[in-house]
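Page 47, continued from p. 46.
Same chain as before, 284 aa.
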Amino acid sequence: MISVFALGKHKSAKYREKTVMVKSYNKSVPIPKLKGEDPFPEISAFSVLVTDVESRFVLYEKNSSIRLLPASTTKIVTALVALDYYSLDSILTVPELNVEGQKMNLIPGEQISVRNLIYGLLVYSANDAAEVLASSYPGGKQSFVKAMNLKVEEMGLENTFFENPSGFDGEMQYTTAFDLTKITDYAMKNNFFRDVVGTKEIIVGSYNAEIAHRLKNINKLIGEVEGVLGVKTGWTENAKENLVTFLDRNGRKIIVVVLNSQDRFGDTKKIIDWVFKNYSWDED
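Result:
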C-alpha cells in the first residue's frame, strides 16, 4: 500500500522509472480495499494514477512519476496563478495575438473579464484566453510563467515545469501523473475552479456585451459518467491524449490521471468502472 504522497522524484528530465519513499497514506479515514478479482482493464495510456482523495490511497498506478508532455493540462496551473493575482471582475483588454490551436476567438481590443477568460481557458481550453491572462500579468508572459513554476514549487512538486501557459510542447514543459494528481486536489478546493471545470456549456461575453463566445466543454465525460465533476483535457501530436478527472460518486472522491493515451475518455471510463466494481470502502 502506498500513498499519493509517497512516489519519488526523478533526477533528470529524461524518462525514468519511479522510486518509492516510505510514507503512509491517511489512516484517519476508511481505506479502500481491493475485494474484486477482475483484472485491470486493457488501456492505451502510457501513464496512469488513480487515487482515493480522502485517504490519498493509490488505487492503481502505472508509470506515474515519469515526466511527460502536459499539453493543455497545463491550464490548471494557468488558472491557479490567474486566480491568485486577478479579481474575477477585473477587465482585461485583448492585445494583438498570434495564437495557434484551440481558441475562443477573442478580438484585439475586446475587453473581457477575468472570470470569462477562465471559463474560456478551462471549459474550451482556449489558448488565446491563456495568452491574455499571461500577457496582462505584471512583467508580462515571462513573469506569469515564472509564477506558474513558483506555484508548483510551493506545492512541493519537482517534476513539473512550464515554458508557456497554454501547454504547447517544449523541452522544459513537463509534468507527471503524480504531480497532476496533487495539482488537481489543490485546485478543486477552489469553489470557482470547481464550478468552471464542471460546466458543460456556457456563453460568455465581452464587457460591453457586444461580443459573445459560445463555449462547449471538450470533456465528453461530464454528464455522461456518473459523478464526473470535470477537470481538464489535453492534446498535442507528441503528448497524445491527456485527461485529468475528478469524480465524486456515493461520497467517494477519486482523481484519475491518464497521460499519453490513444483514447483518454475510453481509458478513463474503463478505469472508473473497474475501481467501483472492485474496491470497497466498507469498514471491517
